[in-house]
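User: Thanks for the earlier help. One more: Hflx-type G domain-containing protein. Can you show the sequence and predicted structure together?

Assistant: Of course, both are below.
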Amino acid sequence: MLFKQVFKHLSCIKSSIRTFSRTSRLYTKEFTDRHLQSLINDNEFTSMSSALLHIRSTGHRVFIIQPSMKFKARGRQSTTAQLQLSESISLIETLDKWRVVGHGIYTLKTSGTQRYLYGKGNVEKIAEEIHECQATAAFVSIDRLSLVQIDGLAEKFCVPIYDRYSIVLQIFKNHAQSGAAKLQVALAEIPLLRYRKNDSELFKDRERNLRAEVAKLEQHRKLIKRRRLSIDIPTVAVVGYTNSGKTSLIKALTKDASLQPKNQLFATLDVTTHAGVLPNALNLLYVDTVGFIADIPTTLIEAFRATLNDAIDAHLLIHVCDISHPDYIVQHKTVMQTLRELNIPSSKLDSMITVFNKYDLLDQEDDDKVISEQAIPDNNNRLYISCKTGQGLDQLIDVLEKRLMIASDRVTCEYRVLQGGQLYQVLTNGNQCTIENMIVDEDDPQFIRLKCLFSKATYAKFQAHYSGASKYLISNDS
Ligand SMILES: Nc1nc2c(ncn2[C@@H]2O[C@H](COP(=O)(O)OP(=O)(O)OP(=O)(O)O)[C@@H](O)[C@H]2O)c(=O)[nH]1
Ligand SMILES: [Mg+2]
């Protein structure tokens, strides 16, 4: 009878969380169907945008111009141009039918604001290479080029010119699935298009309509958030560089089969929630988020603010860093900088757990890849894990449990109560607390020891309502 009741109580909580997860997905779907189709699928606008950005259904043969940065303002100083080039190649290869047909690293001697970026000698050399490999487009791997530069270089190289903003936006466009993601990408596209075609009325109208939809999306998110708060469930947002293993980690922790990790940049563009449960019976929601990348204007990430707010609001953050990546230190820095730019409160950054993932890919010799103090400042929450082999996950769950109890204002109280008595009924009915553990008292089997997890707010109400309960309290960690 005892176990039946607890089982019923747990099932009840689980089903409310499942319903919550499902409802939040449904809301997104309904939202897509009802409001966005016409705005997103505006054929006239889509063809104009493709024409302006020179997007072809056959893809592009791309020549990559990788500037080797001398100036901090335009790039990352601590990484090598070769690593930057590898990332630039991955970006292009993420786009369906786009191929890299040539590349070169060219030292940028100025601050990168010149019309042709480079001097006459380099410009001629690049033009020749582009011609030789029959490239149909050039990708200058700089965060954002000015219109004067785009026009100037297109004229010199006789091919359309892309910068990181336009390439990442193109990837976002291809990967966006939900209405919310599509909407935010459409909004992020406006400045890029306005840049290339000065038709203020057309863009003003579209931007106004899109912003109105974003406002609805925000309202809608608030509704979901209110619902989440009403069931008082702790949330953990998983953030990190793109392709670091965020989705894989949530999949490993929740065994949610719907999650599909992919070896692809920006595979996840929808912020989704996934129910999990910790060993102390605490139910929680994991929030999967869009990955970050270096050298793109913050406006692009900003466009995702409506959905990123879910991450910002989470009780706790887990930062996934791919330690097998040769540029992991810079990736770590980029994520920290982006989080600061998103105005995540410093207290949340302090309590954040950092996991170094893909540990299985490190060689024995790499074991001395112990991160030096100055490279990544220690926050005492650093763990080495592998989502693939499961290594380090138990330790992570242990730390997560402790951190989340604090971050979500939980208290553990142990009561010794008469089995079937009034207090026993109140504690196990599922309305007040989660039962972490229950054992029969060794001295008197009529009594049960109940280890209960309360939110602090509920505990205060419980104490006020059942003042007599304190007589049965054995321990309390508040
Ligand atoms: N060897 C190894 N591969 C891993 C590990 N964790 C993730 N991966 C692989 O890394 C790739 C990226 O994983 P995802 O979980 O999709 O990464 P993500 O951070 O969600 O990526 P985005 O959503 O694109 O930002 C996939 O091919 C995973 O199978 C790990 O611990 N070891
Ligand atoms: Mg992902």
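User: Great, one quick takeaway?

Assistant: The chain has three domains: 7-33+231-406, 55-159, 410-476.
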